[in-house]
Amino acid sequence: MLDKLRLEEELTSVEVLKKLLVGDDSHKMTALKRLVGCVAMGKYVEEVFVDIVNLVSSPVQQIRRLSHIYIQYHVSLNEEVAIMAISSLQSQLLDRDHVVRANTIKILASMNLLSSIPTLQEAIQTGVSDSSPLVRRTSYAALLSYVDILESNDAYEDQHDDFVLTTLERGFKDRIPFVLSMVYSCWNALLPDSHHLVHDQYFKMVKYLADLDETGILATLDILNRYVRIEFTDPQLVDADDVTEDIDFDIIHADHRKYIDALKILLLHSAPCVITKVVEAMVSIAPRSELHVVVDPILRLLRHSKSLRPLLLKFIEQLMLIDPSLFEHHFKLFLLQPMDTHEIARTKLRLLAAIISEENVHFVVSYLFDIILRCSFHVQKEIVDCLGKISFVQGGFSQFILLEAIKFLRSHNLLLVNEVLVLVKNLVKRHISVQPTVEDLDANAIFSKLVAIVFSDTVLLPESLVAVLYLCGEYLPRILHFAPDMLRVIALNFKTYEVSVKLEALSFVVKCMKLFDPRLLNPKKVEEVVEEPEETLDDFLASEGEEEEEKEEEEEEKESEELVAEEPVPEKPVFEEPATEEPVIEAKSVYPDELNTKLIQIVDYIFRMCHFDGNPEVRDKYRLIEKSLEFGGSFIEALCLNMPAPVLQEDLMISSGLLMCSMSFHLGRRLEDYYDLPIWSTEVNKHGLRVDDTEVVMKEDQGFTMDDLSSGYDDEYDQYDDYDESEVETDEKPIKLVEPKIELEKGASLDDWLNSDEEEEGETAPAGAISLGSISLPVTLQQPTPLSPVEVEEEDKEDELEDAYESYYDSEEELE
Amino acid sequence: MIIGAFVIAKSNGDLMLQKSLTPDLSNEIVSLFWRKLAESNNYEELPLILEFNQFQIIHIPVNSLYFLVAAQNETDVVSCISFFEMFNEIVKSRFSHTLTQELINKEYITLMLLLDEMLFGDIMITDSNQLLELYPSKESSASTREPEGFEVQTRCPSLVSNSSAHIPWRRQNVSHDKNKALVDVVERYDAVIDSHGIVTFSSVNGNIAINSLLSGQPDVLLRLKNPSCISSASFHPSVRYIKWQSQRVLSFVPPDGKFSVMRYQINGNTQCPISIKPKTQRIADDKIEFSLSVSPNGDFSLQDVFVKIPFNHSSLYLTTVGNEEPVHRIINVDVSSDIGSSSYNQRTHDFEFSIAKLPSNGNVQITGTITFIQLDEKYRDPLDELDGIHPAVTFLFTKEGDSVLKVNKMEFSDEYGGNLFKGVKYKTLSGQVEMQL
């Protein structure tokens, strides 16, 4: 039908509609249905507006309801047509049907029109004292629009403040949770600062909390959180100051405690938004020691609701910042699943890295290496990141991670190899010394794997090759016997390398030269040069006639390398101040003379290729080296500096300090209308303004105490109503147990059946509770002295019973 | 205003149904959303909250449709998403059908009326019973009605009268010819199983659903046999939380009709009902042989066993910067097994195998050969890296007294007589069972 309207435009043409609207009721219905279709599709048909306004007083209710939808949409878009409707709507405010009254208020509130304000104000005034809860609730919702319209037209004045306040104060007296929810929501939106109003309402709000609907609960928690922080002191401070066994009762104010208890009950609510809001509230106002109650509800939501998963993981992350031990035993929930999106996988891995402890580190690390090949590249990258973080936190495990990671260097997945190399590079730098020792056979194995990468003729990303060359250069003493061969391979493949690889290869060559080249083994002392290296360099560069360019490039190079120093990316060494003293090199080559000569030839060959290289950067670097060699290798040192091992910056997770349920928290920035919680009061306000009238009422009526906090809705039947006393159903007569007839039909005796129901029943039934507590009373009365029934028999009997039930159940279904 | 506009959009980018509370936002939202979607070209990777100058768009997909909400400024994000889910459930309970394009086409009038009641300034009414009173569904109303039409009830008791509005989930004056209450306990079993067949993680997610067909204002007490096993639970608003906290019983005045009274989660290692042992072996340059042995554990009886082996993991792909291309392509999968049927999905590279009923004593052996073709020979042979196959399994299982949580009995307020509790139906399904072998 909707598609038909979309495709066949003549169905909604003005002529056709006008014709239909002058016809009888069924024609009018047809026209209205088409018009509602237009509204549903966001189409604007204002030509028939006047005709539709006339229909609001139609005797047919369907017609009236549909015309409301049409009118509401159009008045919100067009101010001119809105004016036409006001007078017709005024009469509707007194309609017999409460839905019509409510809808009329909605329409009036939808007009963004200053001239409609008096009518709206009047409608709200009468609406809030309407007998129908629906109309009352709608009126309070309209109050929000009322203020909105005034503010958007810059016409909000003090007199309006009074109106809002008196209307809200009337709302506080309402006893229907359905209405009260909207009153609180309205209050929270319009007067967030008015914490003096809470004094009178505090106990009522805390008590009815669980009975409100979701909108109401969210608003009430907002109001109460702010109030509690202004009125009471920070429980955390108390926790930290003197940790004694019985702190809670003495130090947290009794009224504050009542609110915390009510919050804990709310964790049984079925709506996810309530649970998350309660978590936020617990974080804001409860002592840290009680935060653990939110763990299970949050994890239940996490498994239950797929669409909420990314948000909930953010919640967990935030909670872990507050108390890292909260989710320690639940780390298996953060294992990756095949359906996880990139974003979810990333958060989960971040959580895993943060949750790591000595007990679970082995499991997590093995798990991550298990799944790494099955993941998409983006996730692989995150996994490698996560492993890096774990190796920082659990230093003792680095060796294991390193050895496992090395295995992935031969993967054909080039990006993975590249990522793994970053990890390997960092781990090697942190845990393996430059000079080989006798024990670390593992380290030697690692280096032979790395060298093998250079020798193999498989494809590698240039970045990976740079990283390998860099590592080999840094740890030359460990690969002495491989170095000549590596030089040979480099000379062989030099032409095919990318520029970045060529540059790194040059550095490697220079580092190697320190092992055998006589020019570097016995450097000439040229003191002036050492004192004024800049000038010499400049002169040298000037002689080449490319001074400016050179300088710039040098600087660029330095800059880029400084950047590299911050991030653990495998690149060239950094020109920083020397980190370690270079070992004093013996003035004799480490290789035999014959090999030495060949090596010098190879190096010369590589240098010659650089000299004629197509890329200026390579030529420049070569010239620097060449000139440097002439001056006794003083600049060479700069090329061979050891880079310090990277340090983990403490940015595993950062707390934004924003409220967890807010949009700002999820966007990571403060929105304009983000409303911060006040800071904790330094002392408890002992003005006694909070009046606990709920307790008085309850005691008078039913003999309850405040121990039966909210959510025992049956206990409060009588108190809600002050409008229609005649309809109140009291629930005072105790409900008796239904006699289990079905069971008797099946041949078992009543006593047996009662016995199977465990003794707890009699014991736990409270004497004071009227409604359901007393259900079990007849049972205990009839029950003979407790036998000691054999459990096996019991179970058999119950299984039989269940079978009987089931068959009965099935037959019922068949009948249906 | 919390919600600026609510839009249901088709998967081709058309606006399907809108309810805007701020003028003319709907069309803008849809076009902005589509632009973002086109930019990211994969819906899965689109952030949940899209940020724009004037507002934020929150979106979730539902049956090839998209629900979009424009939230202006500070809003509770979770409540927006809850609203989507609530709307979806109300539609489901009302039309006994999930929300689809066809349903919207047919029932747009009712949906518009519902949305009109559900959203105004703030989220207004979300209780399905209250909505049912305002707009009774066809099944619940016996009076004559218009074709394609809707019913209007002049008097909606719980919203009119103050006395009953404290139990907003139950209509007044409900009457049924025959009083009865049916209880279903449905549990889902999730697990991760490691290479040694040990359950590394498992949990049971359960739901107690009640179909209450009781006249008047019944007060029901549901006793559980073993409530202590529950690690966390949530309840329908009708359940008295206090009673649960103190006595571990469910005491409530039920809404009329079907509802879920309790959802719960049970943690702790339980026995996995199925055991699967995969094995792979390379028999030629381009062939891999695999075998799977599937057998039930203990005395579980397993039905509808569905094994899925994904062959799309990255070890079969060459990954370089910017693109992923397969190095190998599976050209054929030959499978032989005693029972069951198998298929290979060329698009998703999933091998799927299903067995209607697993024999209770023996195991099922599946053997197969996968034939590959190497597309680019200059790269290393990635089949070396194929570290085994990693099946994901779903199944339906029943066992004597199968569910973990059991209902003991149900008691009713005395005006209902005895014969109302028709017993409990237990059903246990597998949720996500993943083998990390």
Search tags:
heterodimer; A: 816 residues; mainly alpha; 43 helices; elongated; disordered C terminus; B: 437 residues; alpha+beta; 5-stranded antiparallel beta sheet; 6 helices; 16% helix; 43% strand
Task: Walk me through what this model shows.
Chain A is mostly helical and 816 residues long. Chain A contains 43 helices and no strands. In chain A, helix 11 crosses helix 13 (214-231) and helix 22 packs parallel to helix 24 (414-431). The two termini of chain A are 32 Å apart. Chain B is an alpha+beta fold. Chain B is built from six helices and 25 strands. Chain B has helices at 26-40, 77-95, 101-118, 128-134, 157-160, 241-247; strands at 3-10, 15-20, 49-51, 56-62, 65-71, 119-120, 122-123, 180-193, 199-213, 220-224, 232-235, 249-252, 257-267, 274-284, 287-296, 301-310, 317-320, 323-326, 328-337, 341-345, 350-357, 364-374, 392-398, 407-412, 421-435. In chain B, 46% of the residues are buried. Chains A and B meet through helix 1, helix 3, helix 5, helix 7 and helix 9 of A and strand 2, helix 2, helix 3, strand 7 and strand 8 of B.
Distance between the termini of chain A: 32 Å
- pLDDT average of chain B, as an integer? 75
Largest sheet of chain A: none
Give a quick account of the main beta sheet of chain B: strands, pairing sense, barrel closure. 9 strands, mixed
Q: How many beta strands in the DSSP annotation of chain B?
A: 25
Give the overall silhouette of chain B.
Answer: flat
Give the low-confidence spans of chain A. 241-249, 526-538, 540-554, 556-586, 695-792, 807-816
Count of alpha and pi helical runs of chain A: 43
Mean pLDDT metric of chain A: 73
Would you count the extended β strands of chain A for me? 0
Poorly predicted tracts of residues of chain B:
139-157
Oligomer: heterodimer
Instruction: Characterize the overall form of chain A.
Output: elongated
Radius of gyration of chain B: 26 Å
